[in-house]
Amino acid sequence: MKKFTFILLSILTIGCANEVDIDGYWQGHFTFPKERVPALIKFENGKFIDFFGVYNDTVEYKRNDDKILFGNATTRSGVFKIKVNKNELTTFKNETDSIFVSLKKKQAERFIFDYLNDKNLKLELPDGHGIKRNIGPKYFRNPLYLSYIDSNLVANFLDTTVHVNSKYHILLRKLSDYSNHYENSLHINKVTLIIDKNLKMSDVNLISNQLRLAGYLKVYYYLKSDSYEKINFLSTKLRPISEIDYHKYNSEENQLSPPPPSFLLDYFKGEILRLYIDKNKVTLNDTIININKLNEFMKLKLLPNKELGVFYQISESSTYQDFIRFNDVIYNAYYDIRNVYLLQKYNISYRDNFDYDKDEIIESKKTFPMFLKQIDSIEYEKVKKFQKL
User: Fold this and answer.
1) Cβ distance 189 to 215 under 8 Å?
2) Are 11 and 24 in contact (CB under 8 A)?
3) Which range has the worst mean pLDDT, 39-48, 184-193, 344-353?
């Protein structure tokens, strides 16, 4: 990403004769032969921030006629030359005067909707209290939008919008080939799921399975956020593919990682909670529990019993919002209890540091390990029988 910020801040050919007001957000993308990189910059009261730069640092700037000078009087770091035409900001390559990148003024309430290239795909994000961060390259990886158009389930991934079916994983693999060079360097393929909260879980399970078959391992579930550049998300790993899917889809052309050798119960030694979610109704070990009380129940369970397995099945008639609401309750029980642990012991906030490999953060995860697994109906019955042993 350094090269993009460097180019953006390099000396660019001039384009405007008067000082059009440029304060606000400008969004778009850089397009290169083998990748498409989001771009979001902000000008505000003499300050500039590139959200997809390396550090998301705020830089001072001054407008001098038709030039933007970055840095203060003693530490000038570059000149940004632009052309502004109504709601479009264009930059040019210095050597050829050709257009380098065009950015548009903020139009939607959130950047993720401005970035969506197919404006026919409408969706509403689910409500929840996840982890909040500035949007940037770390948390906006391979966005996949999922909603309905004319009663058909449709996904937009890497600028390609198609109907989703049981063969969608083939297209996912083809589309992601050019972006996997960066992902493979991190040893994990990530995807950002931006899903309409009213979709049924049958649709969400379909896309999750297609992502697993395409080799994606980690997911960011995007929730509704309270500002344009802020994101609110839950981060999790997709469960491995099933043995049935492995034998069905594995081939020389489509090589899949094999599933675990046996069901998770074979080696889990802690207490097990079995939950069934059907819309707003939550059943815990055959007893109905108010979802608003589930968070406190989880905390009480975690304190004396640090190894706790939470296995849950959610009905396919439930909505994506129901799915997020349940996961949000469980995740926040862990976030809260790890936060208290770290604040008391090290005066460190878990929420502010959860994505850093600090020794203290690792310690809190080991002290209160999360073992949360979505299971199907067959596995649900296995867990039920195991509890009775």
Assistant:
1) yes
2) no
3) 184-193
Question: Collapsing DSSP states into helix, strand and coil, what is residue 220?
Answer: strand
> CATH 2.40.128: which residues of the chain?
2-107
At 182, which helix (H) or strand (E)?
A: helix 180-185
Structure tokens at 281: 């109704």
Q: Give the tens place of pLDDT for each residue, 120-170.
A: 899 999 999 999 999 998 899 899 999 999 999 999 998 899 999 999 999
- Going by pLDDT thresholds of 50, 70 and 90, the confidence category of residue 101 is confident
Q: What angle do CA 58, 63, 68 make, to 5 degrees?
A: 65
Tell me: the pLDDT tens digits for 313-348? 999 999 999 999 999 999 999 999 999 999 999 999
Tokens representing 10 are 């390099």
3-state secondary structure of 184: helix
CATH architecture, domain 2-107 = Beta Barrel (2.40)
**Rounded to 5 degrees, what are φ and ψ at 276?**
-125, 125
Amino acid at 82: I
Task: Give burial (CB, 10 Å; 0-12/13-18/19+) of 85.
Answer: exposed
Q: What are the strands, taking DSSP E only, across the chain?
A: 24-32, 35-44, 47-50, 58-64, 67-70, 78-85, 88-92, 99-105, 131-134, 143-149, 152-157, 160-163, 190-195, 218-223, 230-237, 271-278, 281-284, 287-289, 308-314, 371-374
